[in-house]
Design goal:
The chain has 490 residues and is an alpha/beta fold. It contains 16 helices and 20 strands. It has a seven-stranded mixed beta sheet with strand order 10-13-14-9-8-15-16, sandwiched between helices. Strands 5-4-3-6-7-18 form a six-stranded mixed beta sheet, with helices on both faces. Strands 1-2-20 form a three-stranded antiparallel beta sheet. The radius of gyration is 26 Å and the shape is globular.
C-alpha cells in the first residue's frame, strides 16, 4: 500500500498564519461592523465588485486551491473543479446576471382602505454575517454562501474549519488581498477560537456541519437573538426499484455516494429496496465502482481520502456490523477506505435512527460505506424514512412515475431528486437547505439574497387628502361598514 505524509499547512515559502487571539477576534468583528456601517457595501456597484473579487480570487489562484484541496482530502483536479471551484464560479456568475433584478425594490398594491398610498418592499442588507464552514468542502461551503452575503450588501467574518488546514490557510492569506476594504475577515483556530467568535454579536450566522455543533451555534446565537441558517445533514435515504437501465442508475448512485469519499452532507446514506433486487443491485454497484475508480480505488488519484484518523477509525468500526458485499479494504497510512457496500440479515427489520440495531444505521455515516436495507414495499420504505429525522435529501431511483410521486407526497426532506444524487446542490436556481433536524433556512441564487437581506416594507401615505380621518372615532356607521367591507376584500 502507498502511504502519504502529513501535509504541510502552508504553501512552500510562506509562514503559516497563527490562530486568532481573543483580541484579534474582537478586532475582526469590529472592523467588519465599521465597514458595513460606513455604507460602502450597499451600492449595487460595490456588491458586484465584491462578487467579482470572489471569482478573481478563485480564477487567479486556481492551482493553489487545487493544491490545498489535494493536501487536505486528496481531491483530484477534476473533483476540485467540479465540486468546489467551478460550482462557486457558477454561483457568482449566476448571481451577477440577476443581481440588479433581485435587489431592486418591489412595488406592492395597497388595499382601498388606505388609498391614496404607495408601498414598496426594499431588500435591505442585514449587517455582519458569520460564516462557519466545514472541512469537507472548504472552498464551496465557504465562498458559495459568501457570494450571496456580499451580493446582498453585507460584510462577513469567516471561521473556516481547522481540519482542512491547508485550504483555511490559503483563504486567510488571499482574502485580505482581494478584499482590501475589510469587507471580509478570516479567523483561524481550533474550537476555542470558534467559541470566542460565537460570543460576538452578528446580524446573521450561517453554520454548516453536524447537528451536535449546530445546537451549540443556535444556543450561542440566542444570546444576541441572532437569526441563523443551519445546514446540517443526517441520513439521506435512497429508494431503489429501477429495473431498467440498471447500470446507468447504479453508476449515478455510486458517483453520488463516493464523491469526496462519501464525506458530503447530502451523500446517499443508505439504500432501501426489496430483497429480490439486492443481488443485481450489488453487482451493478460493484461494476460502477470499478468503472469510475479502477480495480483498486485505494491507488486511484481520482479517489478522495478520509480527513483524519479519528474519522477513519470511526468508519472502520462500522464494517463489523453487517456483511461486506464488496469493498472494505483500507490503508491507514493514506487514510483511505475503498468504496464499500454492506447488507444485513433478512431477519432484521429495516430501521434507521436511535432504535436501529447497528451504529452504522443510527449515525450519519459521512464516509464511503453504503448499507442496503430490505423492505417489502415503497410504503414500508416511506415508513422507515418518516420514522426518524427529516433528511437533508431523498433520492428516488424508480421506473414508475407513480412511485416518484408517492415519495414526493408521502415523505418530507430538504430536497427530493429523481434519477440522480447530489447534483441539486450545484444548481443556483434551486434553494439548498434542510428541514427540521437536517437544517434551518436555505441559500443559493435568489434564496441567498432572501436569506441575507431583510425585506423592509416602505409605505407612503400623503397627508392630503386625510382619508385616515375616516378611521377615527365619530365616523358615521355607514362609512365604517363600507370600510369594513373593503378590508374584508383584501
Amino acid at each position: 500500500m502507498t502511504t502519504t505524509s502529513t501535509p504541510s499547512t502552508s504553501t512552500p515559502g510562506t509562514t503559516p498564519i497563527p490562530d486568532a487571539s481573543r483580541e484579534e477576534v474582537a478586532r475582526a468583528v469590529s472592523r467588519a461592523r465599521a465597514v458595513f456601517d460606513s455604507g460602502v457595501t450597499r451600492p449595487l456597484a460595490a456588491r458586484e465588485r465584491h462578487v467579482r473579487s470572489i471569482g478573481r480570487m478563485l480564477t487567479q489562484n486556481r492551482a493553489l486551491f487545487e493544491e490545498a484541496l489535494r493536501a487536505d482530502v486528496h481531491k483530484s483536479r477534476r473533483e476540485s473543479g467540479m465540486t468546489e471551484i467551478d460550482v462557486t464560479l457558477g454561483e457568482a456568475a449566476h448571481t451577477l446576471r440577476h443581481l440588479r433584478h433581485w435587489t431592486s425594490p418591489r412595488r406592492v398594491l395597497t388595499p382601498p382602505t388606505f388609498w391614496p398610498s404607495s408601498a414598496r418592499v426594499v431588500p435591505e442588507p442585514l449587517g455582519v454575517v458569520l460564516v462557519m464552514s466545514p472541512w469537507n468542502y472548504p472552498v464551496n461551503l465557504t465562498l458559495d454562501p459568501l457570494v450571496g452575503i456580499l451580493a446582498a450588501g453585507n460584510t462577513a467574518v469567516i471561521k473556516p474549519s481547522p481540519e482542512s488546514a491547508n485550504t483555511s490557510q490559503l483563504l486567510a492569506r488571499l482574502v485580505p488581498v482581494y478584499f482590501p476594504d475589510g469587507a471580509v475577515q478570516v479567523l483561524l483556530g481550533p474550537v476555542e477560537v470558534a467559541q470566542q467568535v460565537l460570543e460576538e454579536r452578528f446580524d446573521h450566522i450561517l453554520f454548516t456541519g453536524s447537528g451536535t455543533v449546530g445546537r451549540i451555534v443556535m444556543a450561542a446565537a440566542a444570546e444576541h437573538l441572532t437569526p441563523v441558517t443551519l445546514e446540517l445533514g443526517g441520513k439521506s435515504p435512497v429508494w431503489f426499484d429501477q429495473d431498467r437501465d440498471l447500470d446507468v442508475a447504479a453508476r449515478r448512485l455510486v458517483w453520488a455516494k463516493y464523491t469526496n469519499a462519501g464525506q458530503t452532507c447530502v451523500s446517499p446514506d443508505y439504500v432501501l429496496t426489496t430483497r429480490e433486487r439486492v443481488p443485481a443491485l450489488v453487482a451493478a454497484l460493484e461494476r460502477a465502482v470499478r468503472d469510475l475508480w479502477g480495480p483498486d480505488p485505494l491507488l486511484s488519484d481520482e479517489y478522495c481520502h478520509i480527513i483524519s484518523e479519528r474519522h477513519f477509525d470511526r468508519l472502520l468500526s462500522y464494517l463489523d456490523e453487517g456483511t461486506v458485499e464488496f469493498g472494505g479494504r483500507h490503508d491507514r497510512g493514506s487514510l483511505c477506505i475503498e468504496p464499500t457496500v454492506m447488507t444485513f440479515p433478512a431477519s432484521e427489520q429495516a430501521s434507521v435512527g436511535p432504535d436501529a440495531p447497528h451504529r452504522v444505521l443510527r449515525e450519519e455515516i459521512f464516509g464511503p460505506i453504503l448499507p442496503i436495507l430490505t423492505v417489502g414495499s415503497r410504503e414500508e420504505a416511506a415508513r422507515v424514512v418518516n420514522g426518524w429525522d427529516k433528511p437533508l435529501a431523498l433520492y428516488v431511483f424508480s421506473d414508475s412515475t407513480g412511485t416518484r410521486r408517492y415519495f414526493e407526497r408521502h415523505t418530507s426532506s430538504g430536497a427530493l431528486v429523481n434519477g440522480a444524487g447530489l447534483i441539486h446542490v450545484g444548481i443556483g436556481s434551486l434553494p439548498f437547505g434542510g428541514i427540521g433536524p437536517s437544517g434551518t433556512g436555505s441559500y443559493h441564487g435568489r434564496d441567498s439574497i432572501r436569506t441575507f437581506s431583510h425585506p423592509k416594507p416602505v409605505l407612503t401615505k400623503p397627508l392630503v387628502p386625510d382619508t385616515l380621518r375616516l378611521l377615527n372615532p365619530g365616523t358615521d356607521r355607514r362609512v365604517l361598514d363600507l370600510i369594513g367591507c373593503l378590508q374584508r376584500q383584501g
